[in-house]
Write a structure and sequence with these properties.
Blueprint lengths: L1 E2 L3 E10 L3 H6 L15 E5 L11 E4 L7 E9 L4 E8 L3 E12 L2 E12 L2 H32 L11
Antiparallel strand pairs: 1-2, 2-8, 3-4, 4-5, 5-6, 6-7, 7-8
Amino acid sequence: MSRNSRRFTYNNTFTVNKDADSVFALLGPEEEKDWLSGWDCEMMHPGPGSAVETDAVAISHPGTEMEAVWVVVDRDTKQHKLDLVRVQPNKLTLHLRIEVVEENGVSTVTWDMTLTALNDSAATEMAASHPAVVAEAVSWIAESLNHYFRTGSKLAKLPAHP
């Protein structure tokens, strides 16, 4: 992790016991509903149930304190790269860069995040808790993906959100 007073950067890597095409197909605001417990979003563009591509816009956790706008900046299905931005008004922005690389049927997922606090209160909260929260959230994502590929179902436990 690196940070200045309001910016926090996290670089994470985990493995999923499945090929890159299968893993990448489950990444994106709409797709994560199928395998990630607690994930909720409403597609604004291109619309509910549509394939998520570049320039897609979603609102996650509508009507809650976790409500945020997500924009798919780039989705490269050939290179298995996904670039998203999340904005939580009056709290933070998050730039998420995901890459999936396959070797021998096992995928290594790089999950890099840059969070920027939008005020002093959010910066203080992030400095105090975010390293542990991010580590738990990324671990949960890895565990959830592997569980889904093994069983076809979601895990029930919910972690804190970064």
